Amino acid sequence: MIKNKQRGSQIFLFFTMILPFSVNAESLNTAWNIALDVDHSLKAVQQNTAAAQQQLEAAKAVRLPGVSLTAGYTALDNTPALKANLGGSSIELPIAENNSLSYNVMATLPLYTSGRISSGIDSAEASFRASQTFESSKVQNLKLKIAEAFVNVLRSIRSLEVADSHVDSLKSHASDVENLHTQGMVSRNDLLSAQVALADAQQNAIKAKNILDIAYSAYNRFLNRPLNQIVTLDNLQPESFDSTLETLTEQALRQSHELLALQNQIQALRHQVAGIRSQTGPQLALNGGYGFQENQYQAYEEQWSINLGLQWKLFDGGIIKHKASATNRQAMSLQEQYDDMRTTISLQVRQYWLDIQETHKRIKVTENAIAQAEENLRVNRDRYENGLSTNTEVLDAESLRTRSKNNHSNALYDAVLAALHLKRTLSEL
Asked: Which domain holds residue 123?
């Protein structure tokens, strides 16, 4: 009695532990939200975007006046003096103190830089946009990985269900064969064949269970959860796309985060080229400030000053020219990558669009095949029990039924994945 109570308590505790995972099925959107909050690689990309934003603010700050303070204290072993010869006598006249304090506060405001500052700002803005689009691309890629893991769990669950159904069917058949063998109606070879087929099915069921465990582990890793946590997932259904292939291709090329990121990177390099070349132009700045030099021999220790300065680099041996050319070559390299990626995206859209058409046709075919396989198995088992069919035909019919169910499951989830891949290519996950 005590043992029964303990066993009952253990069963109650078990169902209490798994109840939260059984009642509330986890949707794909929920999984995405969880993963986007905990994924470390995404957080790293977000930090890069934040850094690009700070670089943009730094580029804008170059337009503002800069203020600097310098100060110092000087101690000399001898008092600075001026030697003079008056009436044949040599005299020394002190011109500064041997110990003195000095400080300066200077402000500098760039007035004209031949486009250097504006090019720097434009380049930083383009780099910031590139970082933002790259982050969006990272989000899309992460969502696709999670979706693939999500679908893999669903596919593995279905495979295990089919494997268990295969085992149950063969158990029933093996039991029937054993009864017939006991009655002397079938040979021992039929019984052995049924038992071997059952053992093989049980082995496949064990493998399917292991595959499901691995699928759960891979899925949980994305959500930063214990790898052995079991959750109930919402089922996914295939999606259809009414748009034509040409429309989808144009949409993908227009919305692709990867293409937008490359465009912005190219623009950033072009602006960098303009900024480098602007260094050969005149640079005009206004300087002004206040200075103090402690010196009792000086009439005025304090000085206010203002200066309008011009710098124009007329010749530098070709350094700026070659730097601009190198940066321009980098932009040309990215342009080639951009052109190549356009063709890649067009191919991906076509591939996934064709996959969707193919998988939807497979779903219809396999649905009919399941019903036919079920009927074929029923007929062969009836015929076998009446001595009109062989054990091999029954086992073949059961294999066909299992295969048709697996084919339908694969077609179903292949269609789901094809739609997800197409939406990723459209940047719409």
From this structure: 25-79+113-281+319-425
